[in-house]
Amino acid sequence: MIKLHDKYFKPFLGEPEIQAAVKNLADKIASDYKNETPIFVGVLNGAFMFVSDFLKQYQHLCEVSFVKLSSYHGLTSTGIVETLLDLPENIEGRTVIILEDIIDSGRTLKELVHLFSNTHVKEFKIAALFYKSTTYNGEYNIDYVGIDIPDKFIVGYGLDYKELGRNLKEVYQLNQKHMINLVIFGKPGAGKGTQAEFLKERYNLKHISTGDVFRYNIKNGTELGALAKSYIDKGDLVPDEVTIKMLEDEVDKNPGASGFIFDGFPRTTAQAEALDVFLASKDMGINATIALEANDEVLTQRLLQRGKVSGRTDDQDEDKIRNRFDEYNQKTVPLKTYYEGQGKFHSVNGIGEIDEISLRLAKVIEEL
Ligand code: AMP
Fold it and tell me: Whose CA is nearest to atom 1 of ligand 1?
């Protein structure tokens, strides 16, 4: 086990395995291109070690160059790709083979393809040492793949966590054992969002509120927002397949989180089951489900009050509020039995001062 900044990583791929994959790639590409002089283009910073070892194994004429893009800041993919070091010159009519250390979502690759569009190269090929087939969006064909890896955050052999770990000869994966994953549960107005803010700070967790993600998408006019809007406006639940996919994407955007607070998810048994399967596929699991309990009269008053301040239309109309309570009673209450069956259900009195309720929650977590 090694520690980089605040996180622990455990061994994942040893040097011999990596070197065998590099040699294999070099041999395959050589058999296709040994009769010409391709230009290998390494993608900095991550690919420097791969490019170096690859070229030592490539026994024929070739040239080498580098480009530099950036899409990861720390562990979180921001989705922003910048060009920091531009195209090599005189590539017109030449075969260009990109050497990427890792292909993950495919965002960086899209930018690379864009960078080389209109360059009139003879052929444009992509070789990736590590490839996450389960997260790749599949937009472009990957011509040469070294090792197909599961969706883990990895460091070493050129790859970093906040710039550390690049010099390791082996590859390590993030150790998820220290994670705390919580489901915060309760009717609309129970204080889930407020208490999630407290828990997030206290335990350094990533807060995912499905309601907030939907509202963000509606505000920004996305396809997902358009899909969800009619349901939310009526106080109905958004269909499971939409919500589950969205939740999984949110978790995937934070591969290095110390844990998650799921707020407003799951709300149906199908969502709870999907969450268990999804987390298990990542060596993760729910530690506890905490329900904030309050009666309907108190909740209705809180929601109407919030509706005045936030402008949320689903908080301003008593019929819609009642419909949300009905949805909760019918679809979400059965989750209590689901989590009780797993011994993970904890109930907390949600009436009182905010700080007082926070202390009740902290007590549950610290006793886990
Ligand atoms: P909230 O902010 O959690 O009260 O959520 C607002 C609305 O978003 C809900 O009334 C639903 O229409 C929708 N929504 C949020 N989370 C879910 C979920 N897990 N499943 C289905 N719909 C949801």
Answer: 211
